[in-house]
Amino acid sequence: MPIPAYKPPSKDRYDIVIVGGAAVGSSVAYWLSQALGDNASILVVERDSTYTFSSTALSTSAIRQQYSNPINVKISQFGVEIIRSFAERMKPFYPDEPSPDLGFKEYGYLYCCSPEGVDAAKARVDLQRSLGAHTVFLDQDGIRERFPYVNVEDLGGASWGAEAEGWFDSMGLLNGFRRAARRSGVEYIDNAVTGLTVENGRVVAAALSTGEAVSCGTLVNAAGPRAQMIAGMAGLSIPVEPRKRHSFVFSSATPIPGRMPNVIDLTGTFVRPEGELFLTGNTPSDDGPAGYEDFEILHAEFDEYIWPALWHRIPNFDALKVQQSWTGHYEYNTLDHNGIVGFHPEVANFMFANGFSGHGLQQSPAVGRAVSELIIHGAFQTLDLTPFQYERIPRNEPFMEEAVI
């Protein structure tokens, strides 16, 4: 297939420039385009238009409601609403072909806890259920009854999302948002922002790697793991860095009966079915900042840490063979593992949509809507994401989430 000729931006000024066009950036573009129509010019600058190295494409594409923070539960509930209704929502933008079905597998999460962690796990379940989630707490007998292949000897129990949790097609979500935004007038270009011009407390222009510069009314930082790079161009700083996450798809000589959930082990290792195979990963043993271009996979992570954890928790996994592996990046917020959403108080038209620490894909529907509300109305109109706003960063006041994977 021939490489398409470079297409420069069609204008030298846009009302809104979004840096990054993966799940979060394209969700922002979608919600803005549906609210503003032809009343605003919107440009999305995406450095990797194939999305080969995007966190969206390299994610494990899952969504859960098992959080310790009410707002994170509500964000996921809206995400589930969008995922379930996505094909219907996208129909107007696919007039001549089927709209994307995200293939949502509502198999739930089984979040294991130690005997010492039972009270905290039950408190989280109570919180989640008070917000309408379907989470239940299972003791050892309850786990054995539903998931007899799980070793419960060292467990105090587990919380299980009986519905509205599972995994889905990440690229289907991204491509749907992107197509809808483009068909609603949003312009996408394959390019990179290399500099920002700030005057009188506002970003006035973004320089592109191809030499052009575009003026903007609002600049949205949706650059994922490169969020701090973009913030730094405006003289700003956020505690967001790339962290590598290795994913492995394996086959097992022994099948797992029934509908298997996403099992989260005490070690942080997770495993779930992927068709006839299984997908697994963990928080790496050497979990530090990575280079922006470093996607080298650490195969020893599977052999030394993941497989022993899998075999201990699910003894059926005694004979495994890795079939595929890859490495993606979390945009890791080192302060509190939660997103940063909102305008900067001094560079007044610089909008953050960053630092979701592995939750960006599942939170992208709600975050995109929230960013559009801030830009259009100056305040949140639906979910109140005020705890995610930038102001907590310089105050060093974490907005903590206990249930981090």
TrEMBL record:
UniProt keyword Transport, yes or no: no
InterPro entries (alphabetical): FAD-dep_OxRdtase (IPR006076), FAD/NAD-bd_sf (IPR036188)
Pfam families (UniProt xref): DAO
GO molecular function: oxidoreductase activity
Domain FAD dependent oxidoreductase: 15-374
Domain of life of the organism encoding this protein: Bacteria
GO biological process assignments: mitochondrial respiratory chain complex I assembly
Ranges that cross the membrane: none
GO cellular component: cytoplasm
Keywords assigned by UniProt, alphabetized: Oxidoreductase
UniProt-listed PANTHER family: FAD-DEPENDENT OXIDOREDUCTASE DOMAIN-CONTAINING PROTEIN 1, SARCOSINE DEHYDROGENASE-RELATED
The protein, known as: FAD-dependent oxidoreductase
